[in-house]
UniProtKB/TrEMBL annotation:
Coiled coil: none annotated. It comes from the Bacteria. Residues 563-633 are annotated as: C. Residues 36-191 form the Histidine kinase/HSP90-like ATPase domain. Keywords: ATP-binding, Chaperone, Cytoplasm, Nucleotide-binding, Stress response. Molecular chaperone. Has ATPase activity. The keyword Chaperone applies. It is found in: Cytoplasm. Homodimer. InterPro entries: HATPase_C_sf (IPR036890), HATPase_dom (IPR003594), HSP90_C (IPR037196), Hsp90_fam (IPR001404), Hsp90_N (IPR020575), Ribosomal_Su5_D2-typ_SF (IPR020568). This is Chaperone protein HtpG. ATP binds at residues 43, 47, 89, 94, 102, 108-110, 131-136, 181, 345. Belongs to the heat shock protein 90 family.
Length: 633
């Protein structure tokens, strides 16, 4: 009995159903990416190249995996009569289990988010699919049947996978002695353009020139007016590591195509930085800023991002060791000659060289962003829209670059009064009033709540700009960033508001007088509210509203306390301070109210309103409604 038959008995031909999402994705892809069929070749070549990288890496520990065939390459062939296009490689290959796992299910993080993001608008969705990464399944854009035969390095059993891209696929044992993967595309009606030598070579050069291993095809000749293949192999692509080439020899298109290869993105990048560092550390880095955030930007388990090479040999893809979390959206390649080829994860973990390379690369990226902010403000706005919230994690994570990162941050402010985050600390400082020495901000859980906060009244009246912060990460940012270029960051909803020199002596005297006059009222309110408040006092901040809540300078802001509570964390208890505006009609009415019960109702309503206005929730909403109603009637 031959080995193949023995294997067949263990694994007879089986039909399996695709996961529901795969089916949906396939349909979507075939219908919305129809206008960009050339990418099929790019995706399959990209996979073959990844497979070669994986083999090289595994072979570092186990040279036998090469099986005396260490010249890794990708072959493209076509058969006019059979109307097939074949892409084969001698990379790592796949075991039966790997085939089922890798191309029977979407095993990709972010799939659910992806489906949620779909709009139903074809043009928009095509774009989304691109961002999501089309990969292997794109084969069905031009093929109505795909046959994949593969044998994993070091494994004897070969497997054949076949599907028409509808509901299911079959899998069976196959005869394949050579290592690696062969994919045969049975072309759909009308896709004959892929049966042209010239056309294929053009596509390969356009999309895959940067692939480091040779992509070979048979040389063709014209005979009697027809194109015929010869026996001679021809390497179609440049087949050299793009990042190792000199900048002057790389075109913009090549940089862009390479980005799409490493990032699995569909769109061009927003910016990139390519540099060769020599001296103490020796490495080349080619780092890109994507134009769009990936679906798994907030998935803490994601590991990809930067590909690490040692002397052109792919070692691994790992974002964490080479980029800090707040730059996790950066994509690209770092190639160093400072590490041994057989570098292990443990070595990487504690390597000073790696630390130095990471620090150098971070500097490069921050420099690139600074440059974009200064010279391409429109691009920077796009970047910030996508990644600003991630960048805000920076000052808390990267102490060494805190000031640099802070310089890259942008916020909404009362100046434009829109939710577009485009004001830098520098802009703010340049517009500060002559006597102003701190940067004022307010945090809230929505932009509207920040924008309409009663705390802003005095600032609006005096024309003092305030930064409006409503991203969740803002509270975290403010925990680690307390000043910028010597200017303190000051919450306008915290502590005793002291406008310092921004208030005239006369204003201060008037304020003092009002405080004196309101002493009895303040005391009475305090008694009525009891343990609900830390204190009650006369406000400096309000001009139009009757009251507002303030946190003590050392306490958590109300917003942060709510965020922690929502995240299931125990926030240390901090009670608010109620500030009242004695100039307001309601407060005047309260002062003149002689009926105890009505005074109490009014006071509670005042407090509850102030809590609602800053986005808080009432502990006892029913009582609030009851009191309101009795006051109205
Ligand atoms: P991605 O490349 O983003 O992982 P693909 O859909 O392109 O997604 O491929 C899915 C998986 O199938 C790959 O991650 C890989 O494990 C496997 N695969 C695809 N093509 C090959 C190949 N030529 N050789 C080995 N494995 C492959
Ligand atoms: Mg792929």
């Amino acid at each position: 009995m031959s080995t193949a038959t023995a294997q067949q008995e263990i694994h007879p031909k089986e039909s399996m159903a695709f996961q529901a999402e795969v089916k949906q994705l396939l349909q979507l892809m075939i219908h919305s990416l129809y206008s960009n069929k050339e990418i099929v070749l790019r995706e399959l070549i990209s996979n073959a190249s990844d497979a070669a990288d994986k083999l090289r890496f595994e072979a570092l520990a186990n040279g036998a995996l090469y099986e005396n065939d260490s010249e890794l390459k990708i072959r493209i062939a076509f058969d006019k009569a059979a109307r097939t296009l074949t892409i084969s490689d001698n990379g790592i290959g796949m075991s039966r289990a790997e085939v089922i796992a890798n191309i029977g299910t979407i095993a990709k993080s972010g799939t659910k988010e992806f489906f949620n993001a779909l709009t139903g608008d074809q043009a928009k969705d095509a774009n989304l699919i691109g961002q999501f990464g089309v990969g292997f399944y794109s084969a069905f854009i031009i093929a109505d049947k795909v046959t994949l035969t593969t044998r994993r390095a070091g494994v004897t059993e070969a497997v054949r996978w076949e599907s028409a891209g509808e509901g299911d696929f079959t899998i069976e044992a196959a005869d394949k002695t050579s290592r690696g993967t062969e994919i045969v595309l049975h072309l759909r009606e009308g896709e004959d353009e892929f049966l042209s030598d010239w056309k294929l070579k053009t596509i390969i050069r356009k999309y895959s020139d940067h692939i480091t291993l040779p992509i070979v095809m048979k040389k063709s000749e014209w005979k009697d007016g027809a194109e015929v293949a010869t026996d001679e192999d021809e390497t179609v692509n440049k087949a050299s590591a793009l990042w190792a080439r000199s900048k002057n020899d790389i075109t913009e298109e090549e940089y862009q195509e390479f980005y799409k290869h490493v990032s699995h993105d569909f769109e061009n990048p927003l910016a990139y930085t390519h540099s060769r560092v020599e001296g103490k550390q020796e490495y080349i880095s080619l780092l890109y800023v994507p134009a769009k955030a990936p679906f798994d930007l907030y998935d803490r388990d994601r590991r990809h991002g930067i590909k690490l090479y040692v002397k052109r040999v792919f070692i691994m893809e790992d974002a964490e060791k080479l980029m800090p979390q707040y730059l996790r959206f950066i994509r690209g390649v770092i190639d160093t000659s400072d590490l041994p080829l057989n570098v292990s994860r443990e070595i990487l973990q504690s390597s000073r060289d790696v630390d130095a390379i990471k620090a150098g690369s971070v500097k490069k990226v921050l420099g690139l962003l600074e440059d974009m902010a200064e010279n391409k403000p429109e691009d920077y706005a796009k970047f910030y829209q996508e990644f600003g919230r991630v960048l805000k994690e920076g000052p808390g994570e990267d102490f060494a670059n805190k000031e640099k990162i802070a310089g890259l941050l942008r916020f909404a402010s009362t100046k434009a009064d829109t939710d577009v985050q485009d004001v830098s600390f520098k802009d703010y400082i340049s517009r500060m009033q002559a006597e102003q020495d701190v940067i004022y901000y307010i945090t809230a859980d929505s932009f509207a709540a920040a924008q309409h906060s009663p705390h802003l009244e005095i600032f609006r009246k005096k024309g003092i700009e305030v930064l409006l912060m409503s991203d969740r990460v803002d509270e975290w940012l403010l925990g680690s960033l307390t000043e910028f270029e010597g200017k303190k960051l000051q919450s306008i909803a915290k502590g005793d508001l002291d406008l310092g020199k921004l208030e005239s002596e006369t204003e201060k005297e008037i304020q003092k007088k009002i405080e004196e006059e309101s002493k009895t009222l303040v005391e009475k309110i305090k008694q009525t509210l009891g343990s609900q408040v830390k204190d009650v006092r006369v406000t400096h901040r309000l001009t139009d509203s009757p009251a507002c809540l303030v946190s003590d300078a050392q306490d958590l802001s109300g917003n942060l306390a709510r965020i922690l509570k929502a995240a299931g964390q125990n926030a240390p208890e901090s009670k608010p301070i109620l500030e009242i505006n004695p100039g307001h009609k309601l407060v005047k009415r309260l002062e003149n109210e002689s009926a105890e019960a009505v005074f109490a109702d009014l006071t509670h309503v005042l407090f509850d309103q102030a809590l609602l206005a800053e986005g808080g929730t009432l502990e006892d909403p029913a009582s609030f409604v009851k009191r309101m109603n009795s006051l109205i009637s």
